[in-house]
Design a protein that fits this description.
83% helix; single chain
Amino acid sequence: MMITINEDNLFAVIIKGSLGLLAFLTLAGWALVSLQVGLGALAGGCIAIVNFFWIRNVLQRVLGQLPARATMYAQLRYVARLAITGLLLYFIITSGWFSLLGLIIGLSVIVINIVALSLYSALRAGG
């Protein structure tokens, strides 16, 4: 079954593809390397996907606000997201339960998926 990717379902396709890739990388890291690599990939992927949701939510709200409030709202949310992500990564790295390599791979899940979708769209369009 061929899935048509357009502006209406792009976010859902990215999330579903990222969750599938995350599941694959988590299981592969655990089975092929170690439990710590699998846990690192899982933690990094969850952080990446939650950040992607958060950024989308902030952008949707900013685009619906008046220009003066939108700037302050976006700046505060950006700093909050950055601080929370930084603290989470600090505790994950210092805990010793997670592999740094797995964490980096997991954090790349959204980027890998977007690059794959871009290549798929380009090849499908004949370019």
